[in-house]
Amino acid sequence: MSEAAVLEQWATHLSDVRGLSDNTVRAYLADLHSLLDHLDLSDESPAPRALADVLTTRALRGWLAALAEAGASRSTLARHTASARSFTEWAHGRGLLPSDPALQLLSPRPDQRLPEVLGHGEITRLLDRARQEAQDDAPQALRDWSALEMLYATGTRIAELCSLDLDSVMSSTQSLRVVGKGDKERVVPFGDPAAQALQAWMDRGRPRLWTPASGSALYLGARGGRVDQRIMRGALHRLTARAGVHDVAPHGLRHTAATHMLEGGADLRSVQELLGHASLQTTQRYTHVDSARLSAVYRQAHPRA
Predict the structure, then answer these.
(1) Environment class of 167 (CB within 10 Å of its CB; exposed 0-12, middle 13-18, buried 19+)
(2) Where are the beta strands (DSSP E) in the chain?
(3) Among 137, 266, 276, 280, which residue's beta carbon has the most beta carbons within 10 A?
(4) Is 28 known to be catalytic?
């Protein structure tokens, strides 16, 4: 079976059987292409070799070592390891490998570092800038204002935001019905500023970008289709520059939202539910971000500090 056919069948397994998102499937496939290139298993190689002959535990360790030497972070190595494990387990089950070579593979501990978080003043300047640029009622500016308000208000992932439909918005409860990783659904509330920006987009922005191809998508691109994640990332980068705040990616707004909720007194379980984390351990990463504030409060309040 050719490399292309194997990867196509594995991709189908990941999406249809395991229910992974399109983004996760693409990431896994990219990791496997890296592995197959390392093993020189390309269909165009001068002397193609069978997968079972070269995909060994030693080969996997050599691939990960090469990635590490090239500067890959621990988080990247952990994801590549997970991709390899998923593939070899599937390939062994399909009879493409006589055994599973990844069973003896140790997974590096992922980095616990978080993307840069905006302070309260910075997020205020960013969202104020987005609101000001929407004052001329340009459809894209109204969309960007609404989208950034919603990202910060709900802590949703950019993929989740771009996949929202009109019926994802529950106006009566001022909340969103969000479908996250593994097709798990959660309901996330949002506040008045996000509600006002959303209403402006719905009243004065979306109708001007709407086309018969728009369907039920909540946020639209310039041609009327569902807005692409890259468009929203670009909009955020431009707005951070014009607002004079640290440049962050959309995931940085998610981390900012989580950090500010914890600073405001939210408990970890609640933040876990809002963000859609499968494990509380993932949410606990945010607690160290607040340590500087805790130290400042201690120094100010404790008589023996």
Answers:
(1) exposed
(2) 169-170, 175-179, 185-189
(3) 276
(4) no
Domain ranges within the chain, ordered by starting residue: 3-104, 120-276
Catalytic hit among 61, 186, 242, 251:
251
When mean pLDDT is compared across 46-50, 59-63, 129-133, 169-173, the lowest value belongs to 46-50
pTM reported for the whole predicted model: 0.66
Q: Catalytic: which of 129, 143, 157, 206?
A: 157
SS3 content of the chain, % helix, strand, coil (to 5): 65, 5, 30
Residue 160: half-sphere exposure toward Cβ, Cα within 13 Å: 29
Contact 164, 187 (CB under 8 A): no
Instruction: Specify whether the CB–CB gap between 36 and 49 falls below 8 A.
Output: no
HSE-CB at 92 with a 13 A cutoff on CA atoms is 14
Is residue 38 annotated as a catalytic residue, yes or no?
no
Phi, psi of 156 (to 5 degrees): -70, 155
The mean pLDDT value for 163-179 works out to 92
* Residue 286 designated active-site: yes
The predicted model gives 17-43 an average pLDDT of: 82
Q: Could you say which architecture CATH assigns to the domain 120-276?
A: Orthogonal Bundle (1.10)
Mark whether 157 is an active-site residue: yes
Residue in 38, 61, 181, 285 annotated catalytic: 181
At residue 16 the predicted structure's pLDDT band, cuts being 50, 70 and 90, is: confident
pLDDT score, position 77: 87
| Active-site choice (79, 206, 254, 260) | 254
Among 65-74, 119-128, 158-167, 269-278, the range scoring the smallest mean pLDDT is 269-278
**The domain at 3-104 falls in which architecture?**
Orthogonal Bundle (1.10)
Is 152 tagged catalytic? no
Query: Does the annotation count 251 as an active-site position?
Result: yes
